[in-house]
Amino acid sequence: MRRGSLPHGEGIASAIVLPRNDGKSLMKVLKSSGELLFKIVVISLIVIFLSFLGMLMMDVWAARTQDFHFLPIVQQAWGQFIIYLQMLTHGDLGTVTMVGREREVAGIVQSASLNSLGLIGMALSFASILGVVMGVFAALSQHRGQADLTLLLAILGISAPTFLLAVLLQNLGIKYTATFGKRLVSMGGYGWNFAHLAMPVLVLMARPLAYITRATYVSMGEIMSADYIRTARSKGLHERMVFFAHVLRNLGIPLLTALGVSFRFTLGVLPIVEFIFAWPGVGLYALDALQRRQAYLFLGVVLSLGASIQILNALLDWLNHRIDPRLGRA
User: First CA to last CA across the chain, in angstroms?
Assistant: First the structure.
């Protein structure tokens, strides 16, 4: 048999063999995708049932009746749960009555999600850029006082309650308008301009900025004292080359972790910020749906938030493995 020829009886297709490493990678991707899908489905089913149950119990308590029977409420919630699952199989999220007319929940969730994601995206983008710059500056600073001041501001930013910061900024804006007779920014409302975005973006980016700054500072300290940095310097590499080729590259995983934590925290405080500044996002609609006992709208908003968190976790995990392949072999 000539070198490079196929054995007799084997087709051309048998020569196309997926490499072992690629096959393992594909299996890992399929396995992680299946686990993610299973997790989303299970959590969604639990959230749907508990939401119907909670809404019914709120109605009973609001009616202030003396008779409270838990089992009939559970049975009623189960019936609504089955009906809602049947609706989902047909791609129907239901309708709600708003401002005297019926509106599709899917349309509300879509517009609200875009509004909230735009707000979060700007806040996290500014927080990431400023946080990395401040953290690197504090780590490389020759003056200990400047580094301590940066860390103090980071601790204050992490510790400050979001609602307190929002109310303080809003009151400062009102005081400024009353004193100078000129409105610097809007105190609430919707609009994709500086006047409407300044306040909610500042409040949302406060804690992520502090957290990313601290994470960058701590990671920079560990990286700068690592053996491979000393080795690179001993080989005569310029400090700029060491910084960009080795330091920043190894900052990737800590920064992704800090960004993921910041995103989850931002989602948690989003309803407060949107309520205070009257921003029509998923947080404001979720609070409004709870107040009006609109289960379909509440579920549409909550399920979209849950899916966003799970997808983000999967994306961050994939990016971590791409930056450091050793994580996949751990």
Answer: 43
pLDDT of residue 5: 43
Q: Is the pTM of this model over 0.70?
A: yes
Domain boundaries, the chain: 113-284
| Calpha distance 237→254 (Å, rounded) | 24
Task: Kindly compute the dihedral angle of the four CA atoms of residues 193, 194, 196, 199, in this order, to the nearest 10 degrees.
Answer: 150
- With 90 as the cut, is the pLDDT of residue 317 above it? no
At residue 23, does pLDDT exceed 70?
A: no
pLDDT tens, position by position, 32-80:
778 878 888 888 899 999 999 988 888 877 776 656 778 888 999 999 9
Pick from 266, 330, 271, 318: nearest CA to 298: 271
CATH of domain 113-284: 1.10.3720.10
Backbone angles phi, psi at 104, to 5 degrees: -75, 135
CA dist list (Å): 151 to 144, 182, 212, 221, 258: 11, 35, 11, 13, 16
Which residues fall within 8 angstroms of residue 21, CB to CB, at 6 or more apart? Answer: none
